[in-house]
């Protein structure tokens, strides 16, 4: 674990930017990303002809660390884990909309010349300020973490990342937020605001196909206020969009991340233009599937 030093005392002071509590499923997700980041950086650091300039991008970077619900202590977040990767990335870009979290990121990176902290909406900042600095034709490559707190990520941002061809992504698909606010309601009762949120995230209104018309539903069984499609079907439909619409060449089956009651909180997606990246991510994710089964039995 990364040494947080005096930040333990800061946590106790009640700074809200440092008191964001995360469950075990989030810690597992960060471990998966860290494992991949180490392999990714090792491979790209070793390339000489051509020599790649590889970067790490965290579009919802947070404060750099969190409070573990299970352990009751501060634990490193993805940004702090990325800074500890060896061999190191050539550059790091950390983005967040929250000014308190940005201040903590700036403090975390104060001695690092390879870190740029950006304050703003990632849908604008990532596309306008970061992507132009990770151009494919300049032998620049990137690993981008898209881990929104809910439905704050726009599909147009994902398409822009895919179009760059130089970036691989880990994407948090916020299943619980989607189910609670849109897909578990009768479509006639969905508010315009909630529908617009999902449309912006999904990219169009094809998500409405996840509902089966009432006449086609069985008389008994599924409640009327629930979507017809299962979580797995929703995730698979989105996976196909990442391939066929956004244009990523390789999108493996995502990993469902479950809470203490075994409910799916979100799916962790990986998407890449390169088969090697897909193979590495699949190996890491499949290993986690095995561990998850044993943890469940225990």
Written overview of the protein:
Residues 1-14 and 214-220 have low confidence and may be disordered. This protein has one domain (7-175, 235-292): Vaccinia Virus protein VP39 (Rossmann fold, 3-Layer(aba) Sandwich), CATH 3.40.50.150. 36% of the residues are buried. It has ten helices and ten strands. With 298 residues, the protein is an alpha/beta fold. A seven-stranded mixed β-sheet has the order 6-5-2-7-8-10-9, sandwiched between helices. A three-stranded mixed β-sheet has the order 1-3-4. The chain is 41% helix and 17% strand.
The count of helical stretches stands at 10
Which strand order do you get reading across the main beta sheet? 6-5-2-7-8-10-9
CA(first)-CA(last) distance = 24 Å
CATH topology label: Rossmann fold
Low-confidence stretches: 1-14, 214-220
* E-strand count: 10
**Main sheet specs:** 7 strands, mixed
The CATH homologous superfamily is termed Vaccinia Virus protein VP39
**Assigned CATH class:** Alpha Beta
């Amino acid at each position: 674990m990364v040494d947080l030093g005096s930040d333990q005392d800061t946590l106790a002071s009640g700074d809200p930017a440092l008191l964001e509590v995360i469950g075990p499923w989030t810690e597992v997700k960060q471990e998966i990303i860290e494992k991949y980041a180490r392999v990714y950086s090792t491979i790209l650091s070793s390339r000489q002809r051509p020599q790649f300039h590889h970067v790490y991008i965290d579009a919802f970077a947070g404060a750099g660390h969190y409070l573990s619900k299970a352990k009751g202590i501060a634990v490193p977040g993805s940004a702090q884990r990325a800074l500890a990767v060896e061999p190191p990335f050539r550059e790091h870009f950390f983005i967040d909309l929250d000014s308190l979290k940005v201040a903590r990121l700036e403090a975390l990176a104060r001695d690092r010349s390879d870190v740029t902290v950006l304050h703003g909406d990632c849908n604008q900042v990532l596309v306008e300020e970061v992507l132009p600095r990770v151009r494919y034709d300049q032998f620049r490559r990137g690993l981008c973490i898209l881990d929104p707190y809910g439905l704050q990520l726009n599909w147009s941002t994902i398409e822009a990342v895919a179009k760059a061809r130089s970036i691989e992504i880990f994407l948090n698909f916020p299943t619980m937020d989607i189910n609670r606010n849109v897909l578990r309601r009768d479509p006639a009762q969905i508010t315009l605001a909630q529908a617009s949120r999902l449309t912006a995230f999904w990219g169009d209104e094809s998500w409405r196909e996840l509902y089966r018309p009432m006449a086609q539903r069985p008389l008994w069984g599924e409640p009327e206020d629930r979507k017809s499609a299962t979580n797995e079907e929703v995730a698979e439909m989105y996976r196909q969009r990442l391939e066929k619409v956004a244009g990523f060449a390789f999108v493996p089956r995502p990993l469902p991340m479950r809470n203490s009651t075994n409910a799916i909180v979100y799916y962790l997606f990986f998407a890449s233009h390169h088969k090697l990246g897909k193979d590495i991510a699949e190996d890491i994710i499949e290993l986690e599937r095995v561990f998850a089964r044993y943890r469940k039995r225990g």
